[in-house]
């Protein structure tokens, strides 16, 4: 009934539009409106959306701006004033899981919002069911040059993933994937201290290879009494956690240093293969199990979560941890708050002997905006995106108002439903600061976000110790900044992306076989590390499970996709 | 049941009434019954909405359900394929074993322990102490498993946990309560009792309070000591409620305790810790959100529980002559 009404309404509106424009075209699959990327609608356009606002939106943003809410804030005002688009939320989810479940529910009862973000699996279902609009022409006509530049910055694989029969059905919501590359965090003040106290240990001043790293981890445990005052049996060198692939305290960089690439598809002799079942995973697992036996990894790592890893750092139990660039703000800022001597440095993953292996990045965090078939103004979301990027990175940039006000440091951009961002924006800020420094401390020339970041660093040097993480992240003190290491990854082309970026194949989705495999992999790898399973036996068991879950069929499908897209 | 009793008394009262008042009284009674029915209505409506209507969703178990096609959309029917797949999984054996081990031990101990606690509390004569003890043993029930799980992870850590430090004082080597596959089920059972046994004793305590005190006096006259009184008076007096609880527990034979296990499960103890409910949850709300598989697993679980609870009811009626309804 509701559908019928909506259809009737759509038909009526369509009639009205045709009457207004005087043209003979219907609205479906054709570009309507003024063709102006920033054109303001004469009549208010309603846009019903759904979105995710996690706890940080309340704690980091709304706490400072009690007059604003998800439903009514600077961005809803911006879109209303500039474009005459009125945004309404049908619902606001608390987390990604919550969003996915709620969206499934909405789809099941046929109550689709006008536009929403989906992953590749849902996207392919929606396209197959014919419920979302072809956005090819709308994107071509309405996306502003800046928006196009931002969205296309990391290549066309994000567009390929949302295209069916050459038609584009989803607009990629860009997040930086280079920022997802993991680093090796080492507590340098401990290393320096050991070098001063025990020069005959011959510890490297700066680790360069995996062996250096192992030596440091071992020394951090053995001499923990000198470092944190803990007995060596209550300390260990490296902190890892139960979720082995977490972006904090996982083992992905360890794997990468040995040339193993679990959880992603990679090219081998012209074919795509799944990294988890390649024999390369054996060596790093063997090393980790050795470390576990020597007590260099916590005996209870399997029951640890992100909080557990954070505790290891703050309690001085470990001085080496793998993780993404944001570790400096959590938990290392806390370590610094407790002990101003704490000095952490993030290294790019180390060389293994003479071999420098790339670091892996899974493009799993992407989302695509789709527009319901029943919505009349697909261009409205693109106009909103244009406006968003224009007001933060474009000619009308007002970082103070729309990105991060300097006085509160609140990430107010989280209030916008559309958040496309240049994938290299953080790195660009760092490079700008570095250049300004090289040009004789010409920091006045900084603009936009880089200026805000520099302001934070300045405040840190002026005595605000809670802004330490900004210094660690962006201050080019020699080569100590986190983004210097990120820059190394980018400049030396040391990032390995998941070679498969298409929608999950039929076999992967059938009976959740890929998920079941991932669960099994976590279990077996944990058992290998803690010594309950022999490396070879465990590896063989995993390969056998891969076959049980029709792994060869998945590989076939992925290769078919590979051939189809690279042609 | 309450409703029946009331109308019975009303009937009896009616007989002794003069004829003239009868019609009016019947109207009155009907009005009274109406109000009882009205009170029942919200419950019935809610049960219908939340328990009966969703049953149509069970069709999902026989489909390859894709949300975007809609609930009544063009879904692919796959017959029993989801069930066959579940039973072809290499893990299914251990999942059932773990579920049964946890559920049976939790439910058996979950009846014995509260009964003992209730008897001991009823024997406490000092009201101040009794109230204090009651509060202390009830309290854990009101904490959520999320909170307790965090506390447990911290306290039971083999490296820095309070419990293992205490054991260390007595020269006992650290025990990895949450990471050792052999100990994990025991940790689950004990912590579950710690949380729920006190609260579970309330019903039994109420039953003990309802026992006629003259029975105890008579027993005392016959020379029964405390133990004898408990054996011959208290326990028989609790028989009805214990039977009821046993019967309700039978339906739980595949309930391993989702909240608890989900919050404490980790890769190291899946071998002995993964239960049906955590498995279903991962299937339904994991990365691929496979509603069909989890609906089938849930349906299977319900059918087993239904069969068991019916059998239990039938047996208790036949052999113990106990009727719930």
What does this structure look like?
The complex is a heterodimer of chains A (567) and B (325). Chain A is built from 25 helices and 15 strands. Chain A has a four-stranded mixed beta sheet. A three-stranded antiparallel beta sheet of chain A has the order 3-14-6. Chain A has 567 residues and is an alpha/beta fold. The radius of gyration of chain A is 26 Å and the shape is globular. In chain A, strand 4 (163-164) and strand 5 (167-168) form a beta hairpin. Chain B has a two-stranded antiparallel ribbon. In chain B, helix 4 runs parallel beside helix 8. Classes of the chains: A alpha/beta (567), B mainly alpha (325). The A-B interface holds A 97, 100-101, 103-105, 107-110, 121-122, 125-126, 128-129, 131, 234, 242, 244, 298-300, 302-303, 307-308, 315, 317, 504, 508-512, 514-516, 518-519, 522-523, 525-527, 530, 545, 548 and B 64, 66-71, 73, 82, 85, 89-90, 150, 153, 157-160, 174, 176, 178-179, 266-271, 282-283, 285-291, 293.
